[in-house]
Amino acid sequence: MSRRIVVRHLLAAVALCLVVAGLVVLGAWRLAVSDAHRDAEASARRVATAVLAPLAGQDFGRPDRGRVLDHIEPFLAAGTVQRVKVLTVDGGTSTVVFSDEPRVEGRPGRLDPDLAERLATRKVTVGAVPDDNEHRYENGLPGTRLEVFFPFRDAAGAEVYLELYLPVDVSGTARHTTLVLLPVVLAGLTLVLAGTMPVSMVAAGRAERLLAAHRHGLAAADGARREAARQLHDDVIPNLAAASLLLQQARARPGDEHTLSRAADAVTGGLRRLRGVLADVVPAGTDDRVGPVGGGGLAAVGGDGLAAVGGDGLAAVGGDLGSALRTLAERMRDGEVAGPVAVAVTVTGPDSTVAAAGTADAATAATAATAAAVRQIAGELLRNTFRHADASTVEVTVVASGSSVTLTVADDGAGFDPRRAARPGHVGLALVRQTARERGGRLTIVSTPGAGTTVTVSLPT
């Protein structure tokens, strides 16, 4: 189970890391784009400060190309700008009246509506270079770039725009930001995930145990029904059928005391077996009412065990596990053995004053599912003892602590060798061991032929 939990946790961690990594990359890219726009505008303003005044002295209806190039050539040579244009705008149409690339001069072009709207405000505008035929010469330059527009009036009073193309490295900036941030973020996330691993294992383990307890409860209920049917078929019905035949014989022969005595014995045996079946199907002290609860809460339920109140609530059979076990032991004894067998049941815990549904049962430290398992296991161990041990004394002890419940069933009977395989059909101890293992507990058997048997089962609460 723990391996499965670790694998699930790791898969979730990998998925989370991938999502976080994707978000970091996306954030780094958006940051790089924002920085590129800001840096491009700052560089363009420095260039514009140097060239706008001399350019405003030109009439761009018939510009002096040589003098204009003298002003912008130093920035082109230094790589500060990659392309310079001066253009006029008429609605959604622009015309390049000057450029360091003569092939684009005089050509009208369509402006993007959003760009035309921003240029109409006569403010500095920054944008990406369109990927179209009109900008094929700019897009053919190495690297990536942004275009920045500065409005001004030329010597003739015409409204024109200085368009500067500035190189930017969005990919490089995003890559650098990612390489700086991503390791730090992933390292911190890894530490958090590693720190939550124990919590995840505890939560998953608890859910697994609850599921196993639920499955075991269903299996136990089905097993109880099958066992009741078997006992009715094998013992009770034959006894009552025999009693019926004997009574018919006695009616035909009035005064036949021997036949009546045999019929009475058959009926008595049938009643004894019926009490045993009843003790198995309906545990002593149970009903279908939910008792008073408070805080952790206790609940009494019918059927084959206990029910939790409020998820992690505490429950006891009929509110008193000790009384339930004592009544169960006595009824099973009466149904299994004919001779006298002394049965003692003791329930202790860290706080003998714990109140549950009006009682003071220390075993209420056990959760509902654990208490149900204790009753079920105790019933199976007592059944084995009464059927096979030939004991005169049986002691049942339950010790509840804050983290576990320990059940001990000891007898002074015939004993056996635990190392030997069980005889065919004798599966009681195997079922107890399986039940304990499914609940995360353990079973210990101490027995010697002729010296009695002690079986101890420890279960986590």
From TrEMBL:
It catalyses: ATP + protein L-histidine = ADP + protein N-phospho-L-histidine. InterPro entries: HATPase_C_sf (IPR036890), HATPase_dom (IPR003594), His_kinase_dom (IPR005467), Sensor_HK_TwoCompSys (IPR050482), Sig_transdc_His_kin-like_C (IPR004358). It is an enzyme of class 2 (transferase). One of its GO terms (biological process) is phosphorelay signal transduction system. The chain crosses the membrane at residues 180-205. The keyword Protein biosynthesis does not apply. Its EC number is 2.7.13.3. The keyword Acetylation does not apply. It comes from the Bacteria. It holds the Pfam family HATPase_c. Keywords: Kinase, Membrane, Transferase, Transmembrane, Transmembrane helix, Two-component regulatory system. One of its GO terms (molecular function) is protein histidine kinase activity. Residues 374-461 form the Histidine kinase domain. This is histidine kinase.
